[in-house]
């Protein structure tokens, strides 16, 4: 993505609001079709690019602007690449790098995901936390939903953490942003739950979620040991009370299409990934990555693979396909 | 503006530290100018990698430690591979204020095995570095584009390498001095970033260079700077569509020629930033020495050899001298001054009265052109 002045057509690759010459607003240009003008196969490893050989492409987009991209796939000069892959299946995990703009990265994620089939009556719950998540990403998500036909009245924000402190903080943050201030904030754990039987198990689910059309989880990336991968529980923390132990097992065994939960969409912010191993050694890995997918188990499996963390036994049968990578090499560390 | 003293260290791995190398170059330049440090009013320091590779910033104050009690203004400048050229340019500007200044540049590249990563820091963090565009890869994309557009071949690039190694073999300060590099060695060297081979790339090396610059002419060895221009461009490699069409280079060259009231035809010797062999050809064209695509013919016909119509890189260039990043731009200007003084020894170019030094920061971004007269 880059920025072009509506008056003088000058182009910027760094995010900018107004042309520095004629002070007119700029438009964002999102190229989708690229022709390979030149390429080089790099044989020498360096600290951030240890796996060789890899290829760097010099690409020209449909508007004549050029870009460089790393890839592990083999291409020829003159070939074209399209960056319009919509999520092919429920197991698709879309990944994108954040370059200079979070907007840009979120934009690409949503574009690659394809239409969300939102109608103006669609009830949408967003499970997030202002305590550990970047409100800027929540704003971008809500903006995307509203642009795709969702109504403010039908969007509910669920605070993932049940404590009063988290709720107070969330209220303050939502009130401070025009796009969020009208949204209803709830604490699903406090809400009345209804017990729904499914495959010989009973699930307590907040009444408010029953009949919702879409549940979106927004979480920072936190990977823990093979014994208990935090992701499985963190996606849905706040929906199911006491989601550890056997409850966790129950949730993980839910098929993708189930009558318990609304359709899911998981947005993972991996900019600061918290990773712990079996010996409780914690590390923080800074990446420039965002992930979006429909199946939280597929996403968890993908995270474990990318961040080299042993996966939870409950993920053994899960599968995933990583999308967006043809055009944006996702590597860890990035 | 005149260059009245200069000193270039022996390029190659050394046990000296960066400050020691720089101090030694300063002492050499002062001796060459027959001056004392107390005669100097300000110093301009160029370095690129000390902060990232050795966690030593604030080099002005580091150097001040060698001159206790003087409290000289010492300015640090950084512009990737173009820092040396920028330091000379800034020193030129400063001579409206000072009578006599010193420029020094140095780089200690044998300090870390991670130099490819640190040097990559001279390119854009997101658009280039994270896309794996290490410097030879950027050179390779420029090479590929140039080959497609103008029919240049790897053999043409090998001719550039061979010419510069022939010259460097005569330059006692060059990294490759005394090393007989053959066409066979060049063309059989391993591919680093296709299509570029090892011998298409300049070598990391340790080195320092310094010059005394004065407002007035002092001796017959003083060499006049008649053009000094610096132009920048955005840092990301791909934004300009064509890596062989460098607007910042064209701007710096036309500004410098206008100041000197000369045209490219008036130049009799040139040092042209050849971080990668195709870059020497691409820049000959961008500096307007010849038309687009014509540099291929020039190298094939030997016009840029030491005895050709425009000797290019008689020092051996970055290719054979090595490229201690922060020192290179100063070394290039010092080489032209040495040639114009007629003191270049075995690599001396015949009858040169005017010369040009072109220094480049990254493969895009900073272009510095100096034109010198005897
Ligand atoms: Zn404009």
Q: State the secondary-structure class of chain B.
A: alpha/beta
Helix content of chain A: 10-25%
Q: What is the CATH class of the largest domain in chain B?
A: Alpha Beta
Task: Using the alpha-carbon principal axes, give the shape of chain B.
Answer: globular
Poorly predicted tracts of residues of chain A: none
Structural class estimated from helices and strands of chain A: alpha/beta
Low-confidence stretches of chain B: none
Q: How many domains make up the coordinates of chain A?
A: 2
Protein name (chain A): DUF362 domain-containing protein
GO molecular function (chain B): acyltransferase activity, transferring groups other than amino-acyl groups
Protein name (chain B): Acetyl-CoA acetyltransferase
Pfam families (chain B): Thiolase_C_1, Thiolase_N
Overview of the structural elements:
The complex is a heterodimer of chains A (334) and B (374). Chain A is of the alpha/beta class and 334 residues long. Chain A folds into 2 domains: 2-82, no CATH class; 92-323, Rossmann fold (3-Layer(aba) Sandwich). Chain A has 6 helices and 18 strands. Chain A has helices at residues 102-113, 135-147, 164-175, 230-236, 245-252, 296-306; strands at residues 2-5, 11-12, 26-29, 33-42, 54-61, 66-71, 80-82, 92-97, 124-128, 155-159, 184-186, 193-198, 201-206, 214-223, 263-276, 282-286, 289-293, 321-323. In chain A, strands 8, 9, 10, 11, 14, 15, 16, 17 and 18 form a 9-stranded mixed β-sheet that branches. A 4-stranded antiparallel β-sheet of chain A has the order 6-5-4-7, with no helix packed on it. Chain A is globular. The mean pLDDT of chain A is 87. With 374 residues, chain B is an alpha/beta fold. Chain B has 2 domains: 2-114 and 207-214, 3-Layer(aba) Sandwich (Peroxisomal Thiolase, Chain A, domain 1); 121-201 and 224-373, Thiolase/Chalcone synthase (Peroxisomal Thiolase, Chain A, domain 1, 3-Layer(aba) Sandwich), CATH 3.40.47.10. Chain B is 36% helix and 18% strand. Chain B has helices spanning 18-33, 50-54, 59-64, 83-94, 115-120, 135-150, 154-168, 183-187, 247-260, 277-286, 295-300, 317-321, 325-341; strands at residues 2-8, 42-46, 74-77, 100-107, 191-193, 196-197, 207-214, 223-232, 269-272, 354-361, 366-373. In chain B, the strands form 2 sheets. In chain B, strands 3-2-4-7-1-8-11-10-9 form a 9-stranded mixed β-sheet, with helices on both faces. The radius of gyration of chain B is 19 Å and the shape is globular. The interface between A and B is medium-sized, with 33 and 36 residues.
């Amino acid at each position: 993505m880059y920025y072009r002045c509506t008056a003088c057509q000058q182009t910027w690759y760094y995010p900018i609001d107004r042309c520095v010459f004629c002070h007119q607003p700029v438009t964002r240009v999102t190229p989708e079709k690229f022709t390979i003008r030149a390429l080089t196969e790099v044989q020498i490893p360096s600290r951030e690019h240890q796996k060789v050989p890899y290829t760097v492409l010099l690409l020209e987009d449909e508007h004549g602007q050029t870009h460089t991209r790393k890839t592990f796939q083999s291409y020829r000069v003159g070939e074209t690449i399209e960056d319009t892959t919509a999520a092919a299946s429920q197991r698709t995990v879309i990944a994108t790098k954040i370059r200079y703009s979070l907007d840009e990265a979120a934009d690409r994620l949503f574009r690659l995901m394809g239409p969300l089939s939102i109608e103006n009556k669609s009830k949408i719950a967003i499970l997030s936390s202002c305590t550990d998540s970047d409100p800027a990403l929540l704003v971008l998500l809500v903006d995307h939903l509203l642009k795709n036909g969702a109504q403010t009245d039908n969007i509910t924000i669920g605070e993932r953490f049940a404590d009063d402190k988290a709720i107070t903080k969330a209220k303050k943050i939502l009130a401070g942003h025009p796009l969020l201030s009208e949204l209803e904030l709830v604490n699903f754990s406090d809400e009345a739950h209804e017990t729904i039987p499914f495959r010989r198990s009973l699930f307590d689910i907040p009444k408010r979620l029953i009949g919702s059309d879409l549940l979106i989880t927004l979480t920072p990336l936190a990977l823990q040991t093979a014994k208990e991968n935090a992701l499985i529980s963190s996606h849905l923390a706040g929906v199911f009370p006491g989601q550890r132990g056997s409850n966790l097992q129950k949730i993980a065994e839910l098929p993708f299409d189930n009558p318990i939960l609304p359709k899911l969409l998981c947005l993972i912010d991996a900019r600061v990934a918290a990773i712990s191993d079996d010996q409780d050694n914690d590390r923080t890995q800074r990446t420039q990555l965002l992930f979006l997918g429909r199946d939280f188990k597929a996403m968890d499996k993908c995270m474990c693979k990318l961040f080299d963390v042993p996966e939870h036994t409950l993920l053994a049968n899960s599968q995933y396909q990583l999308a967006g990578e043809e055009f944006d090499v996702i590597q860890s560390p990035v | 503006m005149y260059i009245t003293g200069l000193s270039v260290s022996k390029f190659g791995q050394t046990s000296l530290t960066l400050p020691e190398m720089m101090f030694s170059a300063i002492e050499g330049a002062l001796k060459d100018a027959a001056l004392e440090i107390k005669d100097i009013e300000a110093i301009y320091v160029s370095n690129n990698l000390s902060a990232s590779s050795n966690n030593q910033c604030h080099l002005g104050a580091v150097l001040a430690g060698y001159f206790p009690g003087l409290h000289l203004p010492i300015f640090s400048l950084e512009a990737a591979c173009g820092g040396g050229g920028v330091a000379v340019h800034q020193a030129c500007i400063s001579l409206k204020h000072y009578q006599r200044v010193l420029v020094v540049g140095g780089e200690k590249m044998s300090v870390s095995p991670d130099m490819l990563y640190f040097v990559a820091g001279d390119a854009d963090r997101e658009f280039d570095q994270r896309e794996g565009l290490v410097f030879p890869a950027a050179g390779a994309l420029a090479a590929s584009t140039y080959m497609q557009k103008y029919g240049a071949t790897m053999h043409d690039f090998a001719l550039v390498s061979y010419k510069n190694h022939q010259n460097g073999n005569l330059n006692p300060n060059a990294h490759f001095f005394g090393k007989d590099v053959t066409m066979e060695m060049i063309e059989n060297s391993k591919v680093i970033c296709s299509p570029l081979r090892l011998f298409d790339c300049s070598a990391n090396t340790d080195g320092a260079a310094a010059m005394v610059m004065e407002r007035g002419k002092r001796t017959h060895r003083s060499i006049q700077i008649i053009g000094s221009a610096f132009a920048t461009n955005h840092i990301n490699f791909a934004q300009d569509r064509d890596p062989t069409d460098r607007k910042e280079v064209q701007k710096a060259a036309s500004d410098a020629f206008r100041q000197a009231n000369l045209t490219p035809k008036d130049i009799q010797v040139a040092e042209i930033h050849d971080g990668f062999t195709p870059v020497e050809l691409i820049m000959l064209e961008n500096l307007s020495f010849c038309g687009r695509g014509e540099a291929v013919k020039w190298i094939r016909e030997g016009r840029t050899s030491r005895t050709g119509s425009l000797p290019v890189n008689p020092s051996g260039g970055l290719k054979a001298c090595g490229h201690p990043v922060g020192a290179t731009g100063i070394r290039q200007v010092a080489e032209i001054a040495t040639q114009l003084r007629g003191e270049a020894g075995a690599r001396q170019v015949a009858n040169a009265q005017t010369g040009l030094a072109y220094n480049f920061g990254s493969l895009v971004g900073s272009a510095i052109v100096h034109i010198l007269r005897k």
